[in-house]
């Protein structure tokens, strides 16, 4: 992980500032839209850690996104828990354990087989929730009460308030970005990068590579759980569609479109793709064709995604290694 | 320690075999490597030298037999465990992190000597001892001036040097080198031979090499392998004078 070019850092800070002041100007619809985008961005960051940095292309990442929503709904319905302090750690723990189990099997494979096995696990979970009466079948479950933050019984923040929800999500996005960045710069991050480039060599150097891959998978699963927690709480409902392969595929498209292995790229990807969808679907009924064409164009013209456009603007040809 | 007397066996193969289907790539090899010595393994192509090395370094599991390092049985142990015992390995086909710079390549090797890299918070670049170790290895292999160069952008010979640098950065006691001179130009070869001679002063070396001049100039002992089996082991003079070795080699070269 290299240090961000100054220009990109500047643009990111401007973007962050815009997000901070956005609620003062925004209509309710757009406030909710941007909240949704930020949730997608957290999911995309977690997937980028897996795909872009560790080289593990998961096609079942939404499993943890959806599982988090179900965990939140169950905690509320069956245990009466509504506090953010209690529900969020519990939900993250559930996702962590699930990622440990799925990961334990998945990391034994790589490439196309890794894609297949993660997809298979996600679909198993999908059909389990889809067919189970306890979890509401295909209708899913309601999350009636938004999580609240209380201190000594005094309600500090309730996520019923859309603006409060917006800022909590923004905080979660910034925290996710900084946490993943920290991990990538740490000794662990270096090992992950080495494994992506040449796993047998990393093992021959003394690294128990499977442990590192598994740890990475668990971290990514928990971060996806954070996104799922917020997503489900925002909608007030969780259903099997949250963990369908469409959702996993969408997250992959966001990461690839934005620029995998850049961390900020997938955040941009989430904004560009969702806003474009919103805009185009207002113009034509066949908006998916337009989106498809856009994705194809970006992949063909900008192999490094939207992020590469920004980096290229600043660096030109100097990004190439010296001969 | 390196020049006189028997210093004791550091690594030992006992009845080591590797079957690939009906083919015995390595067949019942019993061989000891003495501490502090340079032990070359030579033989015609397909003799099973690299497979033998793969069995020693854990890259492959033997079909039969045992490997002992300092008296400890390490048969079938994974390569990461064997690496941590202090055994370094370089590869016949360049095996480095092409997308990383030279320093990063050596860095990841040096960092492997931390008790664990499951450390998530402090930035890696603050680990000064790792940095120093990586820089030292780069200097030793002759790439100090190339620290910031991406490995993929270097010449083949330089990549071979980096391969050795990475091995050194992990500070092994025993080095296994699989054809370190393969594909190198004359000058580069001389540099590497010189480096190997310096390393021999405080390391045990197991060397697979086709360049006979190089082998005869640095090896203390030589083992000749043919068809997966040890034909003969002995000093340079013994091997040079051995009729069986000459026959195996010359016979082979006639066929080619």
Identify the biggest protein-protein contact and residues per side: A-B, 29 and 38 residues
Structural class of chain B: alpha/beta
Gap between N and C termini of chain A = 21 Å
Q: Give the mean pLDDT of chain B.
A: 91
- Inertia-based shape of chain A: globular
**What oligomeric state best describes the polypeptide chains here?**
heterodimer
Strand arrangement in the largest pleated sheet of chain A? 1-4
Q: What is the helical fraction of chain B, as a range of percent?
A: 25-40%
CATH architecture group name of chain A: Orthogonal Bundle
Q: What do we call the CATH topology of chain A?
A: ABC transporter involved in vitamin B12 uptake, BtuC
Largest sheet of chain A: 2 strands, antiparallel
Helix run count of chain A: 13
Strand order of the largest sheet of chain B: 6-7-8-3-9-10
Strand/helix succession of chain B:
EEEHEEHEHHHEHEHEEHH
CATH superfamily of the largest domain in chain B: P-loop containing nucleotide triphosphate hydrolases
Query: What is the percentage of strand-forming residues of chain B?
Result: 15-25%
Describe what this molecule looks like in 3D.
The complex is a heterodimer of chains A (323) and B (256). In chain A, 73% of the residues lie in helices and 4% in strands. By secondary structure, chain A is mostly helical. Chain A has one domain (6-317): ABC transporter involved in vitamin B12 uptake, BtuC (Orthogonal Bundle). In chain A, the strands form two sheets. In chain A, strands 1-4 form a two-stranded antiparallel ribbon. Chain A has a two-stranded antiparallel ribbon with strand order 2-3. In chain A, a hairpin with a 2-residue loop joins strand 2 (148-151) and strand 3 (154-158). In chain A, helix 2 (28-53) crosses helix 10, helix 3 (62-79) crosses helix 4 and helix 3 packs across helix 9. The two termini of chain A are 21 Å apart. Chain B has two domains: 1-86 and 172-256, P-loop containing nucleotide triphosphate hydrolases (Rossmann fold, 3-Layer(aba) Sandwich); 94-170, no CATH class. Chain B is globular, with a radius of gyration of 18 Å. Chain B has 256 residues and is of the alpha/beta class. Chain B is built from nine helices and ten strands. Chain B has helices at 49-57, 79-84, 102-111, 128-140, 156-169, 186-200, 212-218, 236-241, 243-255, and strands at 9-20, 23-34, 38-42, 64-69, 72-73, 87-90, 174-178, 204-208, 221-226, 229-234. The A-B interface holds A 182-183, 185-191, 193-194, 197-198, 200-209, 211-212, 215, 321-323 and B 57, 59, 78-80, 83-84, 89, 95-100, 104, 107-109, 111-114, 117-125, 127, 149-150, 152-153, 166, 170.
């Amino acid at each position: 992980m290299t240090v961000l070019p100054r220009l990109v850092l500047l643009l990111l800070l401007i973007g962050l500032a815009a997000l901070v002041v956005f609620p003062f100007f925004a209509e309710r619809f757009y406030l909710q839209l941007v909240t949704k985008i930020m949730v997608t961005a957290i999911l995309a960051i977690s997937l980028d850690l897996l795909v872009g940095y560790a080289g593990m292309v998961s096609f079942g990442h939404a499993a943890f996104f959806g599982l988090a929503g179900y965990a939140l709904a169950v905690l509320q319905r069956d245990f009466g828990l509504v506090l953010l302090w209690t529900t969020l750690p519990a939900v993250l723990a559930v996702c962590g354990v699930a990622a440990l189990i799925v990961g334990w099997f998945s990391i034994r494979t790589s490439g196309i087989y890794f894609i297949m096995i993660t997809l298979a696990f996600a679909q198993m979970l999908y059909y389990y929730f889809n067919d189970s009466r306890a979890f509401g079948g295909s209708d899913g479950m309601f999350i009636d009460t938004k999580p609240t933050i209380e201190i000594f019984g005094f309600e500090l923040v309730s996520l019923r308030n859309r603006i409060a929800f917006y800022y909590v999500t923004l905080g979660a996005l910034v925290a996710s970005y900084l946490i993943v960045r920290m991990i990538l710069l740490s000794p662990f991050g270096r090992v992950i990068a080495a494994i992506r480039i040449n796993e047998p060599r990393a093992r021959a150097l003394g690294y128990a590579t499977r442990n590192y891959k598994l740890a990475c998978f668990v971290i990514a699963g928990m971060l996806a759980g954070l996104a799922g927690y917020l997503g489900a709480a925002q909608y007030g409902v969780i259903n099997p569609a949250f963990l369908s392969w469409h959702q996993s595929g969408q997250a992959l498209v966001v990461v690839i479109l934005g620029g995998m292995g850049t961390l900020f790229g997938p955040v941009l990807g989430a904004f560009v793709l969702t806003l474009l969808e919103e805009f185009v679907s207002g113009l034509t009924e066949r908006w998916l064709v337009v989106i498809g064409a856009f994705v194809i164009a970006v992949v063909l013209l900008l192999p490094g995604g939207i992020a590469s456009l920004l980096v290229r603007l600043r660096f030109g040809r100097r990004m190439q290694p010296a001969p | 320690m390196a020049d006189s007397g028997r210093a004791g066996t550091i690594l030992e193969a006992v009845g080591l075999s590797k079957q690939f289907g009906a083919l015995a790539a390595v067949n019942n090899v019993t061989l000891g490597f003495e501490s502090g010595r340079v032990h070359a393994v030579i033989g015609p192509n397909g003799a099973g030298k690299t497979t033998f090395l793969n069995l020693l370094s854990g890259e492959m599991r033997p079909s039969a037999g045992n490997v002992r390092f300092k008296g400890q049985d390490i048969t079938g142990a994974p390569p990461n465990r064997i690496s941590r015992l202090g055994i370094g390995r370089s590869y016949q086909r360049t095996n480095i992190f092409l997308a990383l710079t030279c320093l990063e390549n050596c860095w990841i090797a040096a960092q492997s000597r931390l008790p664990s890299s499951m450390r998530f918070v402090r930035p890696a670049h603050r680990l000064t001892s790792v940095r120093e170790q990586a820089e030292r290895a780069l200097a030793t292999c002759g790439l100090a001036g190339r620290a910031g160069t991406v490995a993929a952008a270097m010449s083949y010979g330089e990549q071979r040097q980096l391969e050795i640098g990475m091995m050194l950065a992990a500070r092994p006691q025993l080095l296994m080198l699989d054809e370190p001179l393969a594909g190198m130009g004359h000058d580069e070869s001389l540099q590497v031979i010189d480096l190997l001679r310096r390393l021999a002063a405080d390391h045990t070396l197991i060397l697979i090499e086709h360049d006979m001049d190089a082998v005869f100039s640095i090896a203390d002992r030589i083992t000749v392998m043919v068809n997966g089996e040890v034909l003969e082991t002995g000093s340079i003079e013994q091997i040079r004078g051995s009729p069986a070795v000459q026959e195996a080699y010359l016979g082979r070269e006639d066929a080619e």
